[in-house]
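Format notes (please read before filing issues)

Several people have asked whether sequences and structure tokens are stored in separate files. They are not. Every record keeps both together, in the order shown below: the sequence lines, then the token lines. Line labels are part of the format and must not be stripped during preprocessing.
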Amino acid sequence: MHQSCSTRPTLCCGARGLMQRRAPLAASCKALPLITPDPLPSLPTANQHVLQLSAKPSIAPSAAPLLSLHRPQRQVTFALDSDNTGTIHPVTSSPREEILQLIAEGHTNVNPSPRMTAAVDALIASNTNTQMAADTFRLGQGTWEVFDAPHIRTLSALMFTEFEPIRYVLDGEFMSSNVKYKLPIGGGDGWLSASGSLTALGRDSLTLHFDRFWVDRGSTPLRPIISQRQADKGWDGFITNIGRLTFFDNLATFPVLYVDEELTVFKFPPLNVKIAARRV
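Then the structure lines:
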């Protein structure tokens, strides 16, 4: 763009501040180019996230570096995984939220995380319930799956057999258990099941009595429960008799360490281990 002019503005600074004077130009003034300033950088909108370094180690469970994801009126904090894998995970505000986050990330009994054991221990330490046996029946009706059982992982390694999922179904005082097993290549798979009664023992313990046992092999669909008549004859009767011989009531008392509508942790005294399960 060109401009032809007879006068040009000049600026000078005098006693009265900034003022403008005009000076004559030649009849034909030299063309002046129009200079366009560079555009200012745009600011993030409300829907854009800005990843920044955060210097608030007090909100992290460890001294790992933190990254904060900022958005209007909300901050989500992330930290590097403590197992040194370089995984970034959200820093949660309670052991319960930590456990649910780990489960959402796919950490189950066959895919454990080092953080799970610490979170389960912290969950137990946070418990203030003194009526956990009664609350098991009040809050625990339905289907549950084990997500942390160290002794099962040990057994799986020794037998080269995967046990997943491990399910418990509580219906009133009737309980059934269904465990899917998978043998090494070519060994097949199936379900190991049992059912019986669950009763309260004091304020914080449960007693389990299984009296029916059965196996569904290969492509046979899982039978969640069987009748007493089925348990008394044929193949189911044979498995039930073996199960009754190997089930000891005095080893089937389980102290409840934590229970709510979604999570429960109980102890298996013979091996001094904890078993943690979630509602599904």
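For reference, the curators noted about this record: Residues 1-32, 43-82 have pLDDT under 50 and may be disordered. Helices lie at 95-104, 114-125, 132-139, 150-159, 228-231, 234-246.
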